[in-house]
Amino acid sequence: MGFKNIFFINFGHCLKLNTPFVLLSANLLSLKTRSEPMAIDLTKLSNVKVKAAIIALQKGDEKMWFSLFAAEVAFYDDGNQMKFNNFFRKALGHERFTSIDKVENNGLEVYGHFHSDQWGDFKTCFKFQVNKEGKIARLDIGQASY
User: Fold this and answer.
1) Separation in Å, CA 41 to CA 65, 99, 112, 113, 116
2) Which parts of the chain are beta strand (E)?
3) Tell me: the pLDDT tens digits for 40-58?
4) Is the whole-model pTM more than 0.70?
5) CATH number, span 48-143
């Protein structure tokens, strides 16, 4: 079987695949509007609720993400109170951890390298507080030095 070069373009990046020729329907081709999540090691995440939140963040899964949080969640970014729903409707699918470096406070604080399509790459910390109903009631995020 002969090989044909197929090119996929995503946000200015070009990936050349040397694959067997396959006739693709135009319906199967689509432009991606969200960047692809990077696979990271989640084994350090010991808190079930925090692990579910990080997985949802990595996948850009709004339904899963918002279901984990209390209706009146308190949210702070670098110490500034923000509107949780507005912030994460924009961020999900465009922001993610590129590594989990350490986890503290019984699994409720996650430190790692982070990527934002808007702000670039930096170290961050996510600090979660879970209420008695098992929902995340507070989230503090911000740049970290460690």
Assistant:
1) 19, 7, 11, 12, 19
2) 3-10, 13-20, 69-77, 80-81, 95-104, 109-116, 120-130, 136-143
3) 899 999 999 999 999 999 9
4) yes
5) 3.10.450.50
